[in-house]
Amino acid sequence: MPTVRRQSTNETTTTSTPRGRVQVQRSVAGGRRRQAQQAAMKRQPRPKQHTEYDEEPKSTPLLLKILSWLGVILLCFVLGYLGTSWFVDILNKKLLLKPENRIENQEDLSNFESVEQERVTQQAIQSGESIKQISLNIYHVQNDTIAESRQNFISRTTEDNIRDAVSSVITLSGISGADRIKLLHVFRNSDTAFLDMSGQFASSLESAGQRKSLLLLTSIVRTLQENFSPISQVRFLVDSKPPKSGGVVDLSAPWKMPKKS
Fold first, then answer.
1. Structure pTM?
2. Do 252 and 242 form a contact (C-beta atoms < 8 A)?
3. C-alpha to C-alpha distance for 163 and 208, rounded to whole angstroms
4. What is the dihedral of CA 82, 86, 88, 89, to 10 degrees?
5. How many C-beta atoms lie closer than 10 Å to residue 18's C-beta?
6. 43 φ/ψ sector (left φ>0, alpha ψ -120 to 50, else beta)
7. Tens-digit pLDDT string for the chain (261 aa)
8. Considering only CA atoms, which of 187, 193, 258, 250 is closest in space to residue 220?
9. Best CA proximity match to 195, nearest among 240, 257, 136
10. Whole-angstrom Cα distance, residue 14 to residue 112?
11. 99: cis peptide before it, omega within 30°?
């Protein structure tokens, strides 16, 4: 039988083996300390394992927030402005009646002038008054040259008669898009007449080519020079703006007839 002797701090164990007896000493205090450490480790909470989803989201920079809000405000303003303009236009055209003789654009002005001219003419006929007429020499493009014709017009202001004469020159010249060309405004300053033409005028000159465009502009200048003294030169505007140089003809410079020797 094996014999076991114990002490207070160390434990000695004698074990019988086939070769003899072996004594083994074990430190009782060391074993207790290891047990205490293991128990303490079990009682300690395990550290939390962080994942990529547990990270706190980074805050958005203040400048980026301000720019985002400004973009949203600008977008709302543009959409509101366009929507309001579209809605008001629909109301004016379909739901509301525009007051009589109310002029809002160039088309209204042209229509008003035509109606007013017709009204004055009818009143003169009904009252038995004689309608004054003037006869003008109209120069226009014909068969790749400049032709002359005589036409009668109702006598009105000089600006209105200039408008009638220029319209006749363009119509008789037969250039492309002549029916869509409009003379928007007429001004006079000493010996210079300013003709504010619509954008279709410049497009028609490009389509007509250089020679026919030169003949057309010469016809206009000659018609105004011979019928509306002291006009001797013409300045052209396109959509109320000075035209840029270039193109088949230069509309940025004043046009005048050469002096007769």
1. 0.54
2. yes
3. 22
4. 140
5. 4
6. alpha
7. 444 444 444 555 555 555 555 444 455 555 667 777 777 666 665 655 555 545 555 667 888 888 888 888 988 888 888 888 777 676 665 555 455 555 555 566 566 656 666 666 666 666 655 568 889 999 999 988 999 999 988 888 899 899 999 999 999 998 888 888 999 999 998 899 999 999 999 999 999 899 999 999 999 999 999 999 999 999 999 998 998 877 788 898 899 887 665
8. 193
9. 240
10. 133
11. no
Residues 6 or more apart from 219 whose CB is under 8 A from it? 139, 140, 141, 146, 169, 173
Interior/surface letters 139-162, b for 16+ CB within 10 angstroms, e for the rest: bbbeeeeeeeeeeebeeeeeeebb
Q: How far is CA 195 from CA 127, 154, 178, in A?
A: 35, 20, 16
| Helix, strand and coil in the chain, % to nearest 5 | 45, 25, 30
Residues constituting the chain? 261
Partners of residue 138 on adjacent β-strands: 149
For residue 241, what is the DSSP state? B
231 contacts: CB under 8 Å, gap ≥ 6 = 188, 191, 192, 193, 224, 225
Contacts for 168 with CB less than 8 Å, ≥ 6 apart: 138, 140, 151
Q: Which two tokens stand for residue 226?
A: 């011979």
Bridge partner list, 145:
142
Query: In angstroms, rounded to a whole number, what is the distance separating the alpha carbons of residues 65 and 47?
Result: 37
